[in-house]
What we know:
- It contains three helices and no strands.
- The chain has a domain at about 5-70.
- The radius of gyration is 28 Å and the shape is rod-shaped.
- The chain has about 100 residues and is mostly helical.
- Helix 1 runs antiparallel to helix 2.
Amino acid sequence: MAARGHRGPAAFSSASSVLCFDFFFVPPRFTLSVSGVHYLWTFAVMFVTAMTISHLAIRLRAEAEAARKAKNGRPGSWKKPRRQKSTRRRNDCAVRS
């Protein structure tokens, strides 16, 4: 979700995944109530992890877009520079010509 959207949809997706985990897997099942306090820590860690991954994906997409714009803005900047031959001596100029 974060690779295509922004932080808002990524936060919504993260929160909904934590709520789905609570609803389907945490006892009592098929409710949003939590029976143990340790599950609250689990939810917090899951949410923070999801938000961190979303942030990194958004940043990676922005950097790729910036590199793409830089490449298109300067057409010759991505080519390897050709190595120039040294012509320091006068005889080298005559031989290579």
